[in-house]
Write a structure and sequence with these properties.
Largest sheet of chain A: none
Structural class of chain B: mainly alpha
Structural class of chain A: mainly alpha
Radius of gyration of chain B: 21 Å
Largest interface: A-B, 37 and 48 residues
Number of strands of chain A: 0
Distance between the termini of chain B: 35 Å
Helix content of chain A: over 70%
Largest sheet of chain B: none
Shape of chain A: globular
Oligomer: heterodimer
Order of helices and strands of chain A: HHHHHHHHHHHHHHHHHHH
């Protein structure tokens, strides 16, 4: 990465008005480097991906035998997730510059050159996939690579073309479940007649797929002006009334209820069943509220509820969902 | 533009509500008579294509087989009607929420079908519980599509959030009830007492919310909303009686009022006709309360802005949901 203080000059003047860049210039070099690294790799998303992988492994086979292999698998998965995030920011650097929310990202702001960024992408992808192969075999590695490809090569360009991008991006968001399932020898367990774990993991993938619709519709609503300015065809840009975004959010949240409940199947845990019911119904109510009101407050509430309900669901699945 | 003579979305949605009500009643009977495994294969019925299973064997065979196979046929019929509804809603409904709710109904009916199959193939109580919770949710969505696809919007009265709370509480009550309906024989006494406690707390909550909703809607609410609210209060009262009767039919008389006295005993499997009616009726009535709560929520305007692009004046209705 280029030294931060000098690179502030590269930030387009239009982004200076937002205030973020002034703050960026004020902080020290190492703090900025850390902030840039965080902005590039988006660790919160990576943590969510890792939580998904762990939950998937747990629901498939319970406690894994080799903790070291699991750590290596998670490190590899985190690296692949980081790689996809950097690649996304390279491909979207021109639209990122036009959005206040993303203008200060290191590539969009010019603090990191595209060439250097591609090196980071290739290195983290290569090391990440190798770590997964070494710790869990080629099948989870292939699932991780497929997730990367879907996110970078399909979802990212689709954002400029069609509002259906969310439906495609949500597949990439749900695929980490397959990494955990394959790493925990899910296919062999299924072939041996253990269908309960397979059913729960299919439900987890469905939950994650559906969960993303209300979550991203809330974001798309909150930043609809910026998305429109950047030329990204989000549903809230195509339909500014929010009716379609609200309807889609509500439909997905409703469909998520039974999928959440199936997570309790391997363990037969009543506690997990009730926790899943409450988490998914609370999410459904927040989605319905957004669909009805279609304002910033309800979108913000939906966004926070989405994070809380997913975190609650995954925590309950790990705490109570150990297969019997 | 002149509207079409028939409002097909509304008509098909009403048909779906009617078929689903019968389907849910069959499902409740299947659980009451523990007939879920009467047909051990799926999606076939004793090796036959489900739709080609001999009619005489179905109608004149064992009662369990009649219930389970009938439940499957009704489920298939509901699935077909749901697909038809989604197609018609997508083509003709001008309200995006109606379209998306119809899509949600398709997703739910597919999931419900798979769950029904998994319940048989895995013979799993937890899958049965999920199946029991998805049915009412599907029913609620079907009712919402039917109510929201009417040509005329309800005449909104004062904004109130109570029907929304009633709707959520009545669904959670069905979730809690499903835990008791599909109890594992090995359940720990403390868990059993917790479930009974939850169901009783839920019953109190639904009763209070129904009464408050009726009182709130009664002041300034539309005639239709007042009727629905009163109807719900009456049905909830009946439901309380049925709940007590269902307890006795299922587990015998409790030895006291304290939670410690709620001990799980061997359920009374040999059911008389009346016992079955009471137990099944309790479940079906719970679903009807849920459906009526959906209608009441729409009648008071809490879901009104789902189907209108207007802001401003409609915001009052929207605030009701806040």
């Amino acid at each position: 990465m280029t030294p931060p203080p000098a690179s502030v000059e590269l930030v387009p003047s239009s982004t200076l008005a937002c205030g973020t860049v002034e703050r960026v210039a004020a902080v020290s070099g190492s703090a900025l480097w850390a902030a840039d690294l965080s902005s590039l790799t988006r660790p919160r998303i990576a943590v969510m991906v890792l939580a998904t992988v762990v939950t998937s492994m747990w629901l498939t086979g319970g406690r894994p035998e080799h903790a070291g292999a699991v750590v290596a698998l998670l490190v590899g998965t985190a690296l692949v997730a980081a790689s996809s995030s950097v690649a996304n920011q390279i491909l979207e650097r021109s639209t990122d510059r036009r959005m206040k929310r993303t203008a200060s990202r290191p590539i969009a702001a010019g603090r990191l050159s595209t060439r250097d960024a591609w090196v980071i992408v290739a290195a983290s992808l290569g090391v990440g996939v190798a770590a997964i192969v070494a710790s869990a075999g080629w099948r989870p590695a292939a699932a991780a690579a497929a997730t990367w490809l879907l996110y970078v090569a399909l979802y990212t360009p689709l954002k400029r073309i069609t509002p259906l991008n969310t439906a495609v991006g949500a597949v990439a968001g749900a695929l980490p479940v397959a990494i955990g399932w394959l790493a925990a020898n899910g296919p062999e367990r299924l072939a041996a007649g253990d269908a309960r774990g397979g059913l729960a993991v299919a439900a987890l993938a469905t939950v994650l797929y559906l969960w993303q619709f209300p979550h991203f519709m809330a974001i798309a609503w909150l930043y609809r002006g910026q998305y429109a300015a950047a030329g990204l065809r989000m549903l809230t840009v195509v339909d500014p009334s929010g009716l379609r975004a609200g309807g889609q959010s509500l439909a997905a949240a409703l469909a998520m209820v039974p999928a959440s409940l199936v997570l309790a199947v391997p363990s037969g845990s009543i506690r997990l069943f009730l926790a899943a019911a409450v988490a998914s119904i609370v999410y459904g109510v927040a989605a319905a509220r957004f669909a009805v009101r279609r304002d910033d407050a309800s979108a913000r509430a939906l966004l926070f509820t989405s994070l809380g309900s997913l975190l609650g669901l995954l925590t309950a699945a790990v705490a109570f969902g150990r297969p019997v | 533009m002149k509207p079409a003579f028939f409002n097909w979305t509304h008509l098909i949605a009403c048909l779906l509500v009617a078929v689903t009500a019968v389907l849910l009643s069959f499902g409740a009977l299947v659980t009451t008579y523990e007939a879920a495994m009467a047909v051990p294969d799926w999606p076939a019925t004793y090796g036959h294509n489900m739709f080609l299973f001999p009619l005489a064997e179905w109608l004149h065979g064992p009662w369990d087989l009649f219930l389970e196979h009938g439940h499957r046929l009704l489920g298939a019929l509901a699935g077909i009607i749901t697909l038809l509804l989604a197609g018609v809603a997508w083509r003709s409904a001008t309200r995006p929420a109606v379209r998306w709710l119809a899509v949600a109904a398709v997703a739910l009916v597919v999931v419900q079908g798979v769950l029904g199959g998994a319940r048989v193939l895995l013979d799993d109580k937890t899958v049965a519980k999920v199946h029991a919770c998805t049915g009412p949710l599907f029913f609620a969505v079907a009712v919402a599509v039917a109510a929201l696809s009417r040509r005329t919007s309800p005449d909104h009265g004062p904004a109130t959030r109570v029907p929304v709370a009633l709707l959520v509480a009545s669904y959670l009550q069905l979730v809690a009830g499903a835990q008791l309906r599909h109890l594992d024989a090995t359940v720990e006494p403390s868990t059993f007492q917790l479930l009974v406690g939850l169901h009783i707390v839920g019953a109190v909550a639904v009763t209070v919310l129904a009464a408050v909703a009726a009182a709130t809607v009664g002041v300034g609410g539309s005639t239709s909303a007042r009727r629905w609210a009163k109807g719900i209060v009456i049905v909830v009262g009946l439901q309380l009686l049925l709940g007590a009767a269902a307890w006795v039919a299922n587990w015998g008389m409790p030895s006291g009022l304290l939670p410690e006295s709620w001990q799980l005993t061997e359920p009374l499997r040999a059911r008389s006709g009346w016992n079955a009616v009471v137990v099944t009726g309790h479940v079906v009535l719970g679903m009807m309360i849920l459906g009526a709560s959906v209608v009441l929520t729409i009648e008071v305007g809490a879901l009104g802005r789902l189907v209108t692009r207007k802001g401003g004046a409609d915001a009052a209705a929207g605030r009701a949901f806040a």
